[in-house]
Amino acid sequence: MEHAELDALRATARRRIEQTWGSSTAAADADLDELWAGIAQDGLFELASLDALDGLVVVVEELGRAACPLPIADAFVAARLFGDESEVAQAIADGTLRVTHAAAVEGSTARFVEAAESATHALVIPASGRRVELRTITSATATEGIARPAWHDIELGDAEHTIDVDADAADAALVLLRLALSARAAAAAALTHELAVEHAKTRAQFGKIIGSFGAVQQRAAACAIDVASSAHLVRRAVESYTADSGEWVLAAELASTFIHDGARRIQFGAHHTLAAMGYFDEHAGPWQFRRVHADVVRAASIERAAGSLADVLVDSAVALPGFALDEAGEAFRADVLGAIEESRESDGSFDSDRAVEAIVDRGWLGFGWPEEHGGRRASLAEQVVLHDELVYHRHPASLTLGSVMLLGNSILLHGTDEQKAKLLPIVRAGEMQFCLGYSEPEVGSDLASVRTSAVHDGDGWRINGQKMWTTGGDTAKYMWLAARTDPDAQPRHAGISVFLVPMDTPGVSIQPMTALSGEISTITFLDDVRVPADALVGEVNGGWKVITDALAGERVVMGGIAGQLLRQLDDFLEVVRTDPERWVGARGSAKRAKLASIAASLQALRALVASAIGATSSGAGAKLEAPMAGVLGGELSEEFGEVMLDILGPVGMLSDAAVPGGGAIEKSLRTSIMYVVGGGTNDIQRGLIARALGLPR
């Protein structure tokens, strides 16, 4: 469906829900009959005839925000199974046949059924296919518990309608039901998060608005990342389905798996912020809490013949779906993969210089820039493909690509015409070897406090100070340097300027340091370093804007951890598939559950990185997407390494190329700390996210 159609559909669903159901608190003593009839009157049960999963999800999300369990997805699935023109589909559309799915069926009894008092028929789908039934509901007994309206145990009558389906059709139906429940839970949790953020903007304690408290900001930001990740994954599944992609089932399962934990994290986090305000039934919080937990538990209870996400990953040779779905992106992927293979040496390795040259010769560095600056305005899909494939294949140009995201884009936005003419060709040629001169002995994430000074000296500048933890400072040709040009400026960040300083300038000296990862960083000393006027990038005292744009690019590049982890996951699965029970145990094992969790989180990270790259390359910046990708990437890197060690045991600690993962797992674990503290610690990034949500400093 088109965006305008979806917007209109959302408005229709919201209006009907508000008129005949109300808000979340209506779940206390709800009657679904009137809403069911109204939804049918609005034609929303006819979405199945259009096979409009995108429209269904829009309605499901509105139901989630009202904590309403109307089983419209069950009706959608039933109508699809029995056929658009069937008697069943027509009766569902006009509201006379009211369907609810029954997952836990034993003989003539089904348990944990929602909306049973308003439904007329239960949909029974065997996981392995064969006969799908619509059986009458002869009685329903409410079961007390978290779910409100209550679940029911029901007695099943005759199968009034049956149809034979194959295993694939049955599996697709069950996956759709799981996805719809997950999307509803995610929407319910998202509303509670929104209410918590608004509460944090006005609630005062200890003389301050609680949204200014660090703990509240950290929690709100963590919830926001889960909200965005859930939405991206659901959208990805819907887009794959709409595009008739063979990957849509896996995309849907990744979304459901992530939301199983993510929605509950959001809900609890929001409750912690709402505190007592959201604990009582007069507030939406308790009802959203019930909805979230009821939906994720029911979604997990729908068993597939293929097993869990981990079972699918382990027992079949599938990979996580990519994100470039359009024709141009996929065509370009073939070009990139061809170039990567052409640049390999005979033993499969890369010669760094020749490999980078192969990418440069094709004009792919800065190819998203305007034509007048050497680019070709490459599409978002192409840029994401290049970034992902270079990182995934551990191609040397993946590091060179950082010069485009970190420096090139900022020079394009803030540089003078002369700087663009001089520097952008260097970036496009892959010759911009640089390091970042931000951190200082007393300055890490708080860049507004830089003390390194730059003072006018004739027609140039004289720089004095010290930079710390300068990765690549021993090999860089340039330093992208933040210096204070107005010591009296208020606020602090107003007096900072950015310079591009050649590392061979007299007065620049370095002292190497070895990181936990094995990389070399430096302490960089700047003693009366004189640079010309054209070393200044952007306006005098206007460096904060340049820095934030460059940092957005840095966090996107740091999001390249997604490509690294994807490669490690694929390498690990290749090993696991040789002897699954040895490495991850039988189906249902705790190790398989951990594997599924990190796979789903990795897919969420990839979705955020793609979004951040799109925002940055469009020139709009990536104020929210980039720090989200940075935070999730760093935390997932740590979790990924720990889970791999739990699965592999002592052998995962070895760096020997012959061990599973070729030593990349222990290296990744050592490097993971950098992804949490580099480019501004995750605590600081969550603070940026919190402020983007509107919370006060």
From TrEMBL:
List cofactor names only: FAD
| A single GO molecular function term of this UniProt record | flavin adenine dinucleotide binding
Which family is this protein grouped under? Answer: Belongs to the acyl-CoA dehydrogenase family.
InterPro entries in the record, alphabetically?
A: Acyl-CoA_Oxase/DH_mid-dom, Acyl-CoA_Oxase/DH_mid-dom_sf, AcylCo_DH-like_C, AcylCo_DH/oxidase_C, AcylCoA_DH/ox_N, AcylCoA_DH/ox_N_sf, AcylCoA_DH/oxidase_NM_dom_sf, Mycobact_Acyl-CoA_DH
Residue ranges annotated for the Acyl-CoA oxidase/dehydrogenase middle domain, each copy included? 435-518
- Please provide, in alphabetical order, the Gene Ontology terms of the cellular component aspect for this entry: plasma membrane
Q: Which UniProt keywords apply?
A: FAD, Flavoprotein, Oxidoreductase
Residue ranges constituting the Acyl-CoA dehydrogenase/oxidase C-terminal domain according to the UniProt record: 170-293, 541-693
Question: Which segments constitute the Acyl-CoA dehydrogenase/oxidase N-terminal domain?
Answer: 331-431
One Pfam family linked to the record: Acyl-CoA_dh_N
The source's domain of life comes to Bacteria
Q: Which SUPFAM superfamilies match?
A: Acyl-CoA dehydrogenase C-terminal domain-like, Acyl-CoA dehydrogenase NM domain-like
Q: What is this protein called?
A: Acyl-CoA dehydrogenase
Q: Which organism is it from?
A: Agrococcus baldri
